[in-house]
Amino acid sequence: MTRSWQITGVVDAARARIATARLAAAYGVPALERTRLTTALSAQLRQCLTKGGTWRLTLDATAAPAEEGLLHLVVSPVPGSGAAAQPSWRNTVRCPEAAGPAGGATVADDPAVLAEALLGADEDTALVLERLAQQEELVAFHREELHQTNQGVLALHAELDAAGRAQREAFAAERRARTEAESARRRLLFLADASAVLTASLNHDEIVRRLPELLVPEYARDVDIWLFDGDGDRQPPAPHPAAAVLAARTGRPQYAADHPGGLPGVDDQPPSALDPGRPLLCVPLPTRRAPLGVLTLSPPGDRWDPDDAVMLIELTRRASIAMDNARRFEHNRDIAETLQRALLTDLPTTPGLSLAARYLPATHGLNIGGDWYDAFRQPDGSLITVIGDVTGHGLHAAVMMSQLRTALRAYAVDGGSPGQLLTRLHTFLHHLQPDLYATAVIARFRPGDPTLTWAAAGHPPPVLRTPDGRVHTLDAKPGAMLGIPLRQQIADHTAPLAPGSTLALYTDGLVERRAQGIDPGIERLAAALGSFRSAELERDLEGSADRILTPLLSDSERDDDVCLLLCHLAA
Fold it and tell me: Is the pTM for the entire model greater than 0.70?
């Protein structure tokens, strides 16, 4: 079905619009779509009237009456009517229903028809306004919902920001805790290592030397150690900071600077007049009796960390204990060495027999006092030579050595062979000191007798060099150690003794090494003794003793005494 209208004025346009609205309603176009269609048509017709001329509205339905189809609207200029030449305006809507008979009625000038059309337009407008109101409510709802969402997002952002700040603060606290733990671990490790270094030495001067090396430059820029003299005089022989003098008098650590130190357990003092611009920490070196001195330090930077200061005070206390122990050790070692040297015998002069002895105290540890040598005559003219070693070290071992030496000389006055003398010494030591043991070897030289008689009790074997340069180890089965809880009779042994022979008696400190044992050392001693010529031993037995000790002790840690006794029978 096709309809068309000529439009030359406003009345024609109004009739065309009403007719279009009625036809669209007849074809079942929904009110909202019908309103959009008529509104768009009105706007187009208004433009056409503005331009002038005659225009044609064509309305065309393309579907059968019983089917849903399309309603096409075309507004085009009528040629030759004065309308501006331009493309036609087109619009299309769907038609759900077929048009009834009235659908094709022509719009008349009947007021009833116009009123009906106006009311219908108002109904459509009311429906559109209703839809618009619904949309406004929906928009308002969505706007409120969006507002609430925005508020929620803002709240969420605030919570996330707060959580981020809390997390950053937690991370910062964790880093600080980790840094503090690492610093504490570093201080404890340094304190342990430094304490081990200081307490490992029993040399007072070495401890004093090592302490600044440990502290500079990590914990101090420079270190000064003021030690009191042995009489306890605390007056400084050279200028010292007033804080150091105060620390010596009070026994409390002092901090001298132009600002408070705030160090735990440390008293603040004015800056030192000797160096006002340098902060000083003066820590006394305490002992059980009185301070040994004062340690004065300057910080590696502007000031000390309080925890570092606590660690330094503790290290100073440990260094003081190490120094005090070293002084006590040196004092006891000097006493033991003096006692032992006083008890060692001046070797007798015997025609036809030369003697040379060497005693070297240990230089590492308190290991002085157990080794001894002796040589004396028996009433029958025999010469007894002995060398021995008491277990243990220090003053106690030195005292026991002197008692054994005295007892051996007393027993030898009544005569007796080397084995008999050692047997009596064994009984004496077992009853005198059940928990102390000793080793010894005795060799007897009898005038005019070409035989050497000797006996050993748990001691390294004697080494004999014959005049032809060959060296023999006298390793016949020895007795057990002296003093062990065992009854024993120590046997005598003999060896040929030709003129020009040399016998070497020694203690284990000369030949024993921890990593090698004693046998390689005895072989080295035999080789050293065999390297001498007979004339050299005859001429200079003392120098020969020194030349034996030098190579044998080149690899020794000197943690034990060393005794060597050479006996050379003249050719």
Answer: no
